[in-house]
Design brief:
The complex is a heterodimer of chains A (about 270) and B (about 300).
Chain A (H helix, E strand, L loop, with lengths): L1 H28 L17 H5 L4 H34 L2 H16 L2 H14 L6 H25 L4 H8 L4 H30 L2 H6 L6 H11 L3 H37 L6
Helix pairs in contact in A: 1-11, 3-6, 3-8, 3-10, 4-6, 6-8, 7-8, 8-11
Chain B lengths: L1 H7 L3 H12 L1 H31 L17 H8 L1 H35 L5 H9 L6 H12 L4 H8 L13 H26 L2 H9 L4 H12 L1 H16 L4 H5 L7 H10 L5 H33 L1
Classes of the chains: A mainly alpha (about 270), B mainly alpha (about 300).
Protein name (chain A): ABC transporter permease
InterPro entries (chain A): Bact_Polyamine_Transport (IPR051789), MetI-like (IPR000515), MetI-like_sf (IPR035906)
Subcellular location (chain A): Cell membrane
Chain lengths: ~270, ~300
Amino acid sequence: MKLRNLALPGLFWLFVAYLFLPLFVMAAMGFRDSNFVAFPIHSWTTKWYSEVLLDRDVMEALWLSARVAIFSTVLSVAVGLPIAFAVARTSGIARGLLIALILLPAFLPVVVSAISLRIFIGRIGLETGTAAIAFGHAVGSVPFVVIMVLTRLNTMGRNMADAARNLGADDVIILVRIVLPYLSPALLGAFMFCLLLSFEDFVRSFFLGGFEQTFPVLLFARLRFGFDPGLAAISTLVLIATTGFGLYAERFVRKRSLRSESSLTSGAKND
Amino acid sequence: MTRLLIHLRRYSVYRGLTDLYARSPLARVLIVSIVPLLWILGTTAAPLTQMVLVSFHESFPVREGETVHWTLANYASFLERPLYLTAFVRSFVFATVVTFLTLLVVFPIAYYIAKVAPRSRRTRLLLLVVAPFWVSEIIRSFAWIVMLANRGAVNSFLSFIGMPGTPVELLYNNVSLTIGIIYLTSLYMLLPLYAALEKIDDNVLEAAANLGAPGWQRFLRIVLPLSRDGVVAGCSLVFLLVIGLYAMPQLLGGPGNTLFATTIGQIFAKAGASWPQGSAFSIILTGTALAYVGLFVAIFQRRGRGRA
């Protein structure tokens, strides 16, 4: 009986170990004082961690990834928000069809989505490169923005907007003063989620980048070439940055969402 | 911002526009639907149409002054070389098996977080298993290379505890690829399962227990049927993800067991890429995969409805 009660927590912590152990092992490998990846580690060094920050190719790839992430995130939210409004306003078959069409890119094999975009971009006379990658990443993240905003929109009653309308506010003012503030936690969440999604996206960057290499593409190219502790070091640094960012974003959004909930229920008096 | 808007209200253009929006249903429909329509057109409809068209071209890009020659040869080439057909079938079998394994691995985890762990700790536990998924596919592949390489962590550990016959060849086969893929996709199984399991009313389970149903019966007759939506959603998501994997099979899989998405990618990535052939293969893969998942979803939903 006791053993049975331990089985599920045991499995859970085993799963956690499966998730985290490889990442820790990779981080440790970055401290190996040698040119190739192997265990056990006899002598330790921090040189890879400092050396990789001076690697120009790596830094350029990271910078490109950052720029692409910002472009594609702004585009995704700018497009996803009006799409969510549109979906919220339709009903019946039209709504189902609209949702299906908007979610379709998320269900296509990524390779196929990337290649069809590559063909399309070539067809309308545009080039591969930064803008193409950013566009491609937005194609991947808009479905998630729509879902996140729509979920929040569905919890919003009509009362606030109706009250404002009775008090003489027109649609634009209702949008700016009531709807957008209410949606802000979802928008922030979508914003941060898109940044992470874009930073990680390999396949679309690979097919739409042309000669430009985002960080995952550079890492992929180098891994095929052979791996060294320097790659483990930079991967670890990126891992710490993205996980830290994710944790921060999660907390930030949760807090904000709680705050806006309480301010709406208690009535936003002091505004 | 609001002040600016209130200020703007005095001007007739703004008023005209908001009036138009408020009064004319047609204007409202146009304003609301323009962004979704343009986006769907530019990201899904047009690219896919182009891809379908290109798949019937004899060559692409079409040179200036030449006319397009239409052909079915690209589709026929799929059947000509056994290499393609083998990779295609292997992809579907492999993705099905991996999806099932992911379900087996993740179900107890989701059940533990949703039903067994104390309610106050649920968010924290969920966050603990979600956090590693903020790391990219390539970095996660690399982490498993470091684990499984001939002189990697696992082999080093095995020889440390005195296992004979080390190093064991752990990398570049179906097992290493499966471990890596479950590592990559389990979140997409976990979240739908968690959502479904969390909705199950504890009272139902308690009532069953009070009526004398043993644990396995509660699981088979209550938990599993009530979490069916989560299982179907999770399996569909994971399957579609696995069938489209491009990078990880190249990093963790062996040279002998390529998957079809990788084959397609390589048709495009190599010099002298044949775009029409790659397009045709993409359409074959997408069509079959969506039909396969659609059939799976239809069967399970019908069965569920029949019972209810």
